[in-house]
Design goal:
The chain is an alpha/beta fold. Helix content is 42%, strand content 12%. The chain has one domain (26-305): Alpha-Beta Barrel (TIM Barrel), CATH 3.20.20. The protein has a 9-stranded parallel beta sheet, covered by helices on one side. It binds flavin-adenine dinucleotide (FAD). Flavin-adenine dinucleotide binds at residues 1, 3, 65-66, 68, 94, 96, 121, 123-126, 131, 144-146, 163, 169, 171-172, 177-178, 181, 185, 194, 196, 223.
């Protein structure tokens, strides 16, 4: 996902009835959620409410992104710290290589460990201008995520997730080189890879085959982006190198301007994707929530995950 994703979503209409699927139920499907730090005080109050809602769904973990260029260091740490203190689900902190010497990154990791955080999502990171800009490693920094994973493993026995790119990372020399890079991250000690979002299940399934053939046997978790705002989703996809199927664009084109219909379609599309992946043996999904509690709540409900009453308010 993008570090500086800001969906500014269109207002969400009340849940509409839908023909959606959602065939897997309860414990058959596990979710983890990704949130990004709010940028304003107003956003902060909203964010807390969103996190409460997400927590009530009892995900495997909630991960908090690290802003582009490492720009949200303090706020990411504070949010993760409050999750550790208050939330009854594990928290994961994203950590990137970019713009900092190794010593500084190591110090953050040690601080996290001292706070009781055992889960990290280790990434190279993108320049603040976005993934299209040239990346230059810090002269004394970790150059790539595989170097960061190795460094983190030297510090403590963290549970480390890394990123993977079913449609190839935009700056990779080739698909084969990108797969090698993923293998290096796993060999360095990552517990799982979470994929960049994709909209066509075949894209994920082909990539899964390639990773298995390359000897990567740790979990490859599909990263899913529920589409609450199609134009924004298409913009993110362009930056991340994710393709948008024409059929999908056509479906959203038919409901343009009808917020309730967009919402129902967003849920249907996400459910269809999950259903297909369930049929192909996947059961664990990472949701790029874009801090949208209601949409994620509705999606999870389709798979039998209802908010736990004690944490829902
Ligand atoms: C699940 C997920 C969460 C994310 N969260 C954040 C976040 O919180 N903050 C943020 O800033 N960004 C985040 N991103 C975006 C990520 O930082 C970018 O996609 C970034 O461009 C690549 O990160 P990486 O860890 O996959 O990099 P790497 O695995 O280091 O790969 C980056 C590029 O370098 C190539 N490469 C790797 N090793 C070598 C080598 N030794 N020699 C030459 N080339 C090499 C790879 O093929 C690839 O093209 C996230 C991405 C994902 C998938």
């Amino acid at each position: 996902m993008l570090a500086n994703a800001d969906p500014t979503p269109s207002p969400i209409a009340p849940a509409a009835s839908s023909s959606a699927t959602g065939s897997g139920t309860g414990d058959a499907v596990r979710f983890s959620f990704e949130v990004f730090p709010p940028r304003t005080d107003k956003g902060e109050a909203q964010f807390r409410g969103t996190v409460k809602r997400l927590t009530a769904l009892r995900p495997s973990f909630i991960s908090v992104t690290y802003g582009a260029g490492g720009s949200t260091r303090a706020v990411t740490r504070d949010i993760v710290a409050s999750l550790v203190r208050e939330a009854p689900v594990p928290a994961a902190a994203h950590l990137t290589c970019i713009g900092a010497p190794r010593q500084e990154v190591d110090a953050i990791a040690r601080e996290y460990h001292a706070m009781g955080i055992r889960r990290l999502v280790a990434l190279r990171g993108d320049p603040p201008e976005g993934p299209g800009e040239t990346y230059l490693p810090h002269p004394e920094g970790y150059a790539y995520a595989s170097d960061l994973v190795a460094g983190l493993r030297r510090i403590a026995d963290f549970d480390i997730s890394v990123g993977a790119y079913p449609e190839v990372h935009p700056q990779a020399e080739s698909a084969a080189a990108d797969l090698d890079a993923l293998k290096r991250k796993m060999d360095a000690g990552a517990a799982r890879a979470i994929t960049q979002f994709f909209f066509d299940p075949a894209v994920f399934l082909r990539f899964r085959d390639r990773t298995r053939a390359a000897g990567i046997d740790r979990p490859l978790v599909p990263g899913l982006l529920p589409i609450s705002n199609f134009d924004k989703a298409r913009e993110f996809a362009g930056k991340c190198g994710a393709s948008v199927p024409t059929a999908l664009a056509n479906r959203f084109a038919k409901v343009t301007g009808d917020a309730a219909a967009v919402r129902a379609l967003a849920l249907d599309v996400a459910c269809e994707l999950i259903d297909t992946l369930l049929r192909h043996g996947e059961s664990v999904f990472h949701i790029y929530t874009l801090n949208q509690g209601q949409l994620v709540e509705d999606l999870c409900a389709r798979f039998g995950h209802l908010p736990m009453p004690q944490t829902a308010n």
